[in-house]
Design a protein that fits this description.
heterodimer, A: mainly alpha, Non-ribosomal Peptide Synthetase Peptidyl Carrier Protein, Chain A, B: 620 residues, alpha/beta, Rossmann fold, 23 helices, 38% helix, globular
Chain lengths: 80, 620
Amino acid sequence: MKENAMNRISELFASVVGMEPPRGEDTLPDDVRGWDSLAHIRLVHAIEREFGCELPEGLLLVGKPLGDLVAAVQDSAPGA
Amino acid sequence: MACIVTNLSDHDGNRPGALGETRKDPEMNVSDRAESAWSVDPYAGYGVWHDLSKSMVLNRSAQPQRQVSAAVLATFTTDLLIPLLPLASARHRLSMEVIETPFGQLEQLLLDDRRGFRTMPEYLVLAGTWHDLRLNSGESTEEAVREAVSRWTGLWEAAIAAGARVVQIGFVPPAVDSFGLAASGVESSISAAVARINTQLSKSAAGRVVFVDAAAAASIVGLRNWNSPRYWHSTRMPCSLDALPHLAALIAGAIAADCGLTTRCVILDLDNTLWGGILGEDGVDGIAIGNGPLGESFTSFQHYLRGLRKRGVALAVASKNDPALVEEVLKHNPRMVLQREDFACIVAGWQRKSEQVLEISRRLHLGLSSLMFVDDNPAERAEVAWALPEVQVVEMPRSPAAYPEALASAPGLFVVQHSRDDGLRGHSYKGLQQAAELAGQVSSLNEFLQSLGMCAEIRPLNQNSLPRAAQLIAKTNQFNLTVRRRTQSDLERLMHDPSVLALTLSLRDRFADHGIVGFCLAFAQGNNALIDTLLLSCRVIGRTAERMLVAETAKWAAQRGCASLLGIYRPTDRNRLVEGLYLELGFTPHGKPLDDAVAFEFDLLSGFPQSSSFIQEMAS
């Protein structure tokens, strides 16, 4: 279950930011040049559309590791 | 939300692919992508718009008709909105260069001389959000309403003074109001205050600023889909990402409409488009119109179309049918909403649809890019789109109940404000058609012009005619000697200058009142007078009306003591028609041709250029 969500989020991440997350769930914005605040909003939007869920407010701003987004998706989306 | 994308390159008559496929298909070639780029619907969502914006390549069908520069000055974050504007503009065949500005700094940019723009863009788009308005639900809103109206109209003044044309995006009310559904009747509710601000802004905008009713647009999408409190709190963007394509479409639509990039004539198929069934098989009384659920759908569509005609959009028919049968339905089927006289032009026969469209374009003197083609048959649509890429072809849904919606969301029918002369225009095209038919019956051009019984009224530009003159200047490409796009605020300033002559010309013939269709602007400088702008709407080209404007200008120049009248021709790729105009009017070449212009001179000491002998002047 968890792996599946991570895979799909990695794909979305690559299409928004332009590269695979280099350190998997531990990837931080500092690790990837293109992961700025605008890219982050687009990433959240893409994840919410893909999984049909709404991520918590705390994740709308760039800063947290990618794993936090994956965990939030699993908390809120039964289909993940 | 529905995803609607049309793919006009699909001329084999296959069903175009859904949008999701477009996005995921890596094999899709560039021209297919470009086709979808200019026909993509805002309901496709932010993700699709973002991707298409990034990969946007314009091909021949998307050749822009007009280029503008614009800046968006907003009290909220526009970083995600701005990149969508070129795509939104391409849908209208407008090429928009967007100048980026920091958000929230409207006063600093417009009122502070030291920080303003390096070069002022042609259009300034102003936008706020209800969060700015200092409204407290349940408390008096009077002060806040007054403050908001004076803030935004003050910004208009500054923008106009700086030489820009202003587009004001109206305020979108919140989706949630403490007073619930009662809010609109409670003066102290936020929704009611927002509505009052919009009404007052829209009233003061009339004639000088383009006001866009974003609240109406948001209510169609749904306020809960449009607004996004959490994006407001986290990123200072008041709307959801999926509202951004709609907002971009509003901005581009308003600017395109202001530039005249709109549909002037909707060309309609008949069988299964205006009525259900096949006229040739089902007969005049057998077609489905006004009877049963299917017939009622077509009735509603005809009502919608009749409204378009009242709005000033001409209607025409392009049908593969027996012309006699078509006439019979229009005259004798009592359930038809549209009557014979609702159509400016009817072409029925067996030639290809693209040939019928060309015929209509020729008869109505309308350029292909101002035509919209509506046909239920995908093969016919594809044939027209392929043969005449300038024509806007509407992707029609299967259900006739959804026809009005398909047209209403087509870019060419986007409308922002009603200019006074627009209502006359539908009649005027009809008059053109009758005039064209008459042309076939008379032997010479002179005889034809005499038989039109034309009357013109030439008047100095005034507050009432100002918006129409500005509209003509923005729209006219063919009969336009210099194609100088002077703005409404330029004109307003020049209008009061005693060394400037600004004239409008209205024309009427025995078929139609065309309203204001001509404009001339001249400057007197010492011994010379110079015609800066001379233009005629394409509806009245070939009627010799330009002679009246030039003769009137010559008279004025002579009265001011000028010895010669100078005229300038600045060639563009669309105004070759008037290359030789001044020579025809008896002017002689003046000086050496410049890089981008040729000057002509008329010696006023030896007489005046001849006025038109076919048009009577009405006493004003």
